Amino acid sequence: MATITECRSALDRLSDKLTRADGDVRGAAALDRTLSCHITDLDTTFTGRLADGRIRVEDTVAGPPPAKAQIRLAMTGDDLVAVVDGGLNFAKAWASGRIRLEAGFRDLLRLRSLL
Questions:
Q1: Which end of the chain is more exposed for a tag (fewer CB within 10 A), N or C?
Q2: Neighbours of 79 (CB within 10 A)
Q3: Neighbours of 115 (CB within 10 A)
Q4: Which residues have CB under 8 Å from 17's CB, separation 6+?
C-alpha cells in the first residue's frame, strides 16, 4: 500500500509531466480550477489548484475533502502511483470505477485529452 509521502511524490511527478506536455494536453492542463484528490485507502485528501499547467498541492487533510473542489479525484494510493508511473491506464481505471473523476461538464470535455 502506497504511503502519504509516495502519493504526494506521485502528484508532484504528475505536475512535472503536465508542465512538459504539448498540444491538447497542455491546453487541458492550463485550466485554473480547485482540485482535490482523495486517497481512499489512506482516508487522506490532497487539496490545491490546477493552474498554469501545474498541480499545486496546498494542504493535506485527514478524511474526505473538506470542501467541494471544481475537479475531484478519488482512488487508492497504489492506483495513483500506478497511473503516474504508467502502470495503470487512467481512462480504463476511470471507466471501470477504480478511479472517480468528478467535474463540471465543460471541464470534463477539456480534461478528456489528459486521459
A1: N
A2: 21
A3: 15
A4: 84
